[in-house]
Amino acid sequence: MSNPTYAKVQEGAKLAREKQVSMILALAGIEALADFIKEIGLPCSLQELGIKDKSILKEIAYSCNISMGSYKKMTHKEILEIFEECF
Length: 87
What we know:
Layout: H1 6-19, H2 22-39, H3 57-62, H4 76-86
C-alpha cells in the first residue's frame, strides 16, 4: 500500500471529525505506527531491547535525570510505571 497524499489525509481527517470517530482514528494511527516500527525492525518492548529482568526497571527509572524544563515534570515513580508498561 502506498502512502496517501496530503489531500487524502486531510479528506480522511475531515470525514473523521464529521462522523466523530476521533478515538477510532487515534487507535488506527497507534496501530499503524506499531506496525511500522515492527516493519523496520525496531524493538517494541524493553524485553525486545534486551532487558530480561523486570527487577532492574526500578534502578533504571530512579537513575533517570528529572529535567525541570520538561512538558510535564515526571517523578521517578511515573517513569517506573512507564517502564513497567513497556516491559
